[in-house]
Amino acid sequence: MFNINIFNPSPALAQNDWEARCVSDGVATIQGFECLFLRIVQPIATIAGFVFLIMFIVGGFKYLTSAGDPKKASSATSTLTMAIIGLVGIIISWIILFFIQEFTGVSVTKFVIPDPS
Q1: pLDDT given at position 49
Q2: Residue 24: what are its φ and ψ, rounded to 5°?
Q3: Residues with Cβ < 8 Å from 35, sequence gap 6 or more?
Q4: Distant-in-sequence, close-in-space partners of 80: CB < 8 Å, separation ≥ 6
Q5: The predicted structure's pLDDT at residue 13
Q6: If 0-12 CB within 10 Å is exposed, 13-18 middle and 19+ buried, where does residue 105 land?
Q7: Mean pLDDT of the chain
Q8: Rounded CA separation 102/107 (Å)
Q9: CB 51 within 8 A of CB 79
Q10: Does 93 score more than 70 pLDDT?
Q11: Residue predicted with more confidence, 110 or 51
Q12: How many CB atoms lie within 10 A of CB 37?
């Protein structure tokens, strides 16, 4: 019913529109850094979002279960504060990049290497 071949995957599953730009005739090009950058930054941003969410949930749970104990409440407040500081740091870094883009006209939020041709 299902034809799944783990040992010989189809190349169409591993490639996307970036592959044509990053690899030419089976040889990696300098534009391959664009693909590498994209595949590193997107997961890091996703992981940062999940870490914020988990820290926020853990901090809230610790605060709810502190039962009036000042040490536990302080620890929970610290966790929540660090989660919010991390989120604010990520947002401020993007705002700074957009300000640089607005004032200089250079697209710093998109990593593109021009074709040599």
Answers
A1: 85
A2: -120, 120
A3: 18, 19, 21, 22
A4: 55, 56, 59, 60, 63
A5: 46
A6: exposed
A7: 79
A8: 8
A9: no
A10: yes
A11: 51
A12: 14
Tokens representing residue 35 in the block: 């693909």
Amino acid letter, 88: V
In this model, does residue 101 exceed pLDDT 60? Answer: yes
Could you identify the residue written with the tokens 């969410």?
A: 53
Residue whose tokens read 């901090």: 59
Residue type (1 letter), 73? A
pLDDT band, very low/low/confident/very high, at 96 (cuts 50, 70, 90): very high
The structure's pTM equals 0.62
Residue 27 Cα distances to 14, 19, 99, angstroms: 16, 11, 37
Answer for the pair 70, 62: CB distance below 8 angstroms, yes or no: no
Give one DSSP letter per residue of 10-73, joined into a string: -HHHH--HHHHHHEETTEE-TTHHHHHHHHHHHHHHHHHHHHHHHHHHHHHHHHHTSTT-HHHH
At 102, list the tokens.
């607005």
pLDDT at 37 over 90: no
